[in-house]
């Protein structure tokens, strides 16, 4: 194992640059990495540290400041074209609270691990939880959430259309991290309920949502692919109890394409997030169960990008114009027939990917990333993996001041069947973290049309991040640092290192 560890320590996987080994075996960034040349929004090289003109807001830029290794031997297997430690719908696999950053993953022997560090430090302290991954299924991610009002860390994990596992920390652990020991005793037992609440036997896609009041909500799917509903549960820190709020999306209704008809589906979320003003936003796509709606059986039955929002903590859902289109726990849910909620119409023949990503800018404007195969390449995706690798392009979608939705092709080939992440800096410049650790950006001044490559993390010889990555949305809002959790590419089931790379954005 030491030999393998040393072998992996001879390179910086994300940047494709050499590493040196620091104290306690923590990998430190070679200074040459930090003295590189960055691409500005116009594509020209600018030296690190160059300041923007004082009269104008700076355009997008990134500067790698650190790359730390969480685990030299993280669990590795590929299923559904993804890794269980890095999946787009994993909210949150990496988060920051009260000056400390937290990460969760499965290590080589399948044990669930949670770690923390003080922000800015290179040393992570790990806690092994009493749970081992039950199946080689990349859906079975670990998701974390913080209930700010009582300082608890919540984790839900290891489920794909079946039962889940959860564990919660002691009160105050995250509220005052330096006053509490970071060890296994800080966590309660692993259970198969949500604090005693039984939700569903067909559970998938846990996403914790911190509410403005300091409580916590959990979004999840009940059901299976092509026949499921999105639902919410809510945690009250004052009582320490979870309550099921119910489903807010529907599976029924009729959808007809040029090829056939489907009567059952599920909604896939691009995310579900509160903005700084307390509005809850959700972009989504629909997946039909009946394959007859597709031009070829090897495609994806995903279609359309929808958008809804809630101003009453997820109880009532409205389209972008403010029309009520569904209620949580009621008979009228958000359904495929709610066409006013569609932000971008697209049929099921273009390999539209589900569960990409979303974010809001400082004004509360909703933005989303979507990706598919444009019609100029083919009007019929026959093998969604091969065709997406060959032809898929990412697109940026946002709502303009006049109420219209604007879609801009980013122009950088995905070269992957997988998904990207979206983030904003303090100047509302947008950043898309594409598969393999590539970062592209666009300026608000251009209305997010001048997308350019800012960083290429594929590494020398094609080494580097496997594909999808996880970003720390909470740290970005706190100090303008884009933290990216990624796992090195491996083969078969050979474990590989998992890292957190930190990028400074314009301040």
UniProtKB/TrEMBL annotation:
Pfam entry (one): BNR_4
Source superkingdom: Bacteria
Protein name: BNR repeat-containing protein
Classification of source organism: Bacteria, Bacillati, Actinomycetota, Actinomycetes, Kitasatosporales
